[in-house]
């Protein structure tokens, strides 16, 4: 009988092999995280756009009810400024303020005050910064406008009581 002499045979990875595997995993994870951040920003922009679009239908319901854009027959105008649920304005409607708040949260977590609003008895407009590019905003108004605007100075993306 022939006898084989097996001396301490050790199976496993060398240190170099482990370092290479860890480096490859690190590179792949960096690529995946970069792609996910872009998708997250685009999702935030979609949230801003869809929530602001929902304001239009609720505002039209109020206009059909009262004949004006407001919560009663004699609404208080809302001068251009940060959105707030000021009493007796269009933006004090709970559905509208909830949609503006959701759009602000999708933008950067700022809630309702992140956006800009303006209203009169016969017109309104709302703009909210986009998540992917905070220098630009998405603006909607009672005329059916839904577009990207670039606020300049104090105009907040509006031209009177409409999107510019």
TrEMBL record:
Keyword Transmembrane: yes
Transmembrane segments: 9-36
Keyword Transmembrane in annotation: yes
Pfam family, one: N_methyl
Keyword tags: Membrane, Transmembrane, Transmembrane helix
Gene3D superfamilies per record: Glycoprotein, Type 4 Pilin
Superkingdom in the source lineage: Bacteria
NCBIfam families: IV_pilin_GFxxxE
Protein name from the UniProt record: Type II secretion system protein GspG C-terminal domain-containing protein
Organism, as annotated: Candidatus Zambryskibacteria bacterium RIFCSPLOWO2_12_FULL_39_23
